[in-house]
Amino acid sequence: MSASETVGRPAVVVVTVTYSPGEHLEHFISTLATAASEKPQVILADNGSTDGTPELAAESNEHVRLLRTGGNIGYGGAINRAVAEIDPEVEFVVLANPDIRWGADAIDELLAAAERWPRAGAVGPLVREPDGSVYPSARSVPNLLDGAGHAILGTVWPSNPWTRRYRQENEEISERSVGWLSGSCLLVRRAAFDAIDGFDSRYFMYMEDVDFGDRMGKAGWHNVFVPSAEVTHAKGHAAGRHPEIMLPAHHASAYRFQADRHPHWWQAPLRLALRLGLAIRCRLAVRSALRERDRAA
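Below the sequence we write its predicted structure tokens.
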């Protein structure tokens, strides 16, 4: 008997990781009301918020539960911690950033797609930017060349061929299986999540969704893009406040992803070149972000 057929047991639980999310969390919870026909339980995996918003959300909404992780253990680690608290009989879990605003029927559309794709381990919606433009949330898994080219040149030369191949912005917007889906909003099948041991908690922030999707595919599950479901992602509120922490984490994750997949001794020169290139790119990116933040202050 599936979770959806069990009386009194929710078919889906929503998990989000909070770290002083501010007003984003209020919009996350309020728009969730129109995303599913049945109100899902929400777990706030809190990584050490100091703004009081997770506590307020849990106190104000009976379907919202606050789970303290004990410190800033990163996105993937917090997701794993929260999912471990969910009844294993719950078939689907929605994983979403707290700065997501839900489109009407978004979760119902994701659930319907998961039924259409019985081997879908992860299902992701069309993600819009705050200005309404479409964010390329369904992408190919980057090989070493595409990954390095995008990581090092993506900001300074956005139209470079490696970034274009990786982001797949010119692909048709249609329901299809892809290499990986943005972790900003995913519906995951619990059986698939458990089969690959969830997220790799070594990724503090960034690239954990690429790694997750890649391992999902290698384990025989599909990552399915479902554009009939829509969300809007404010994107980067934590990174904008703390670029000196978040940008190095991003570059470290980009290196880890490729280094894990190119571990042989004879690939050491490639790993070294990638590490040096990312280190230079990271220093420049942090310097630029801090200048922008200071100007905006």
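Residues 268-296 form the longest helix (29 residues).
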